[in-house]
Amino acid sequence: MTMKENKKINVNGIDIAYTSIGSGNPLILVHGNGENKEIFDKLAEELQDRFTVYALDSRCHGESGSGVLTYMNIANDVKEFIVSLGLTNVTFLGFSDGGIVGLLLAINYKDLIDRYYVLGANTYPKGMKAKVLSLYRLAYFFFRDKKIGLMLREPNITKEELNSIKSECVIIAGENDIIRREHTQMIADNIKNSKLIILEGENHSSYVVNSGKLKTVIE
Known about the structure:
It is a single chain. The protein is α/β, with parallel strands linked by helices and 219 residues long. 32% of the residues lie in helices and 26% in strands. It is built from seven helices and eight strands, in the order E-E-E-H-E-H-E-H-E-H-H-H-E-H-E.
């Protein structure tokens, strides 16, 4: 067992905070909107004997620096992180906003990452259930939080872009997710090399945040 290390690296002019633990091929973890890398502490501990696990704070989150907040900018940060550290044979796991980032990486950087685990992601805002989207709209009206604004504007990923993905993708959602079931199914249906897993009894975050439940799913 190794000790978790806390580090920072400058990519695209922004300091990105991350932790690393374990040994083996790299596994990169990216959290959801308004969260930070600490949501993956339990999972990283569970996987450290099989991977070198890197958990990142996205720009404008956690201990990372601020900048223009778009999903593509976060994806470019991850890409530069991988290149800067010289990582190869990479596996990526992204939750919610992090899953969106994973899809954008798979679309735009075909040979960067070998396998993706995309958890609770949507390809456009209305992929979320209507009641959830309405609550986010209300919250943005009152608080003008740019993180919430991001979810209302983006992503805008097309079926054609999903069709272009070549990497292996495992699409995962909870049975009671905030993402519409048919939307999750659509994502899996449009990625040629994909597998869909719906986790019974789980909601959007219950199997991810402070949880090691995915240990048996990650290969």
